[in-house]
Specification:
globular; alpha/beta; 265 residues; 5 helices; Metallo-beta-lactamase, Chain A; five-stranded mixed β-sheet; disordered C terminus; nine-stranded mixed β-sheet; 27% strand
Length: 265
Amino acid sequence: MLRCCVGLGLLLAACSSARPVALASGEAVRLASDLVVRRLAEHVYVVTHEKPWPANSVVVEARDGTLVLVGSPYTTEATERVLAWLGERFGTRKRVAIDTHFHDDAGIGGNLAFHGAGIPIYGSALTVRLLSERRQEPGVPPDHVFELEQGLELPLGEPVRVVFPGPGHTADNVVVFFPQKRLMVGGCLIKAGSTIGNVADADLAHWAASVRKLDGYDFDVLVPGHGERFDRGMLEKHDPFDRDRRRQVGLVTHCHFDDFNRAPH
């Protein structure tokens, strides 16, 4: 069973050279002034790109040795730093990337870097369409496309399941389930903390119901797209639009992602 390190007071190991150090459980390494990699649990690393607002992507070492990159930092440059660190940390490995939704944060922001490194990028047909329809600069789409409702399973020595629980933060948001690791990567469908974030592309009517569907999966560790809480207890009170928080929605619904989401995500 995964041993989840959920404490928020993680030790940051500052790097004085270009070579990153191997991480023990609970440690972290700063790859840039705004980019941190934390070892959350055995074989599970959370990458937090801190600007403009902290956003989490995840790297999971699958049982067959493949590195599964779920989402990415906001930018090509930051993603290239992560790929360089992974190369030094793990050596030559098979790598696959999964787009969680069509926004840059924890989504498609690193696709140009993935494409340049020859990494296959999995994403839904709806993500491809929304990239074209909802953004002034479409970005690099995934090159391995699946139907959203059908989801996807990658056999990597263990099942890696891409699941669409329903619309929420966006119409295309997916989660990635690692049943043998008892790990769920929630992407931007899940947000830790007390603020709603960007709802420019959100489905306000169905978000909470989509989150509740995750309760039917057996996992201990839940990684949100934003925030530093990593346990499934987030599901218990995760209603982004309950009475106390609904008042915030009007502050951010006017924003669009092409304005670089000028509201917390």
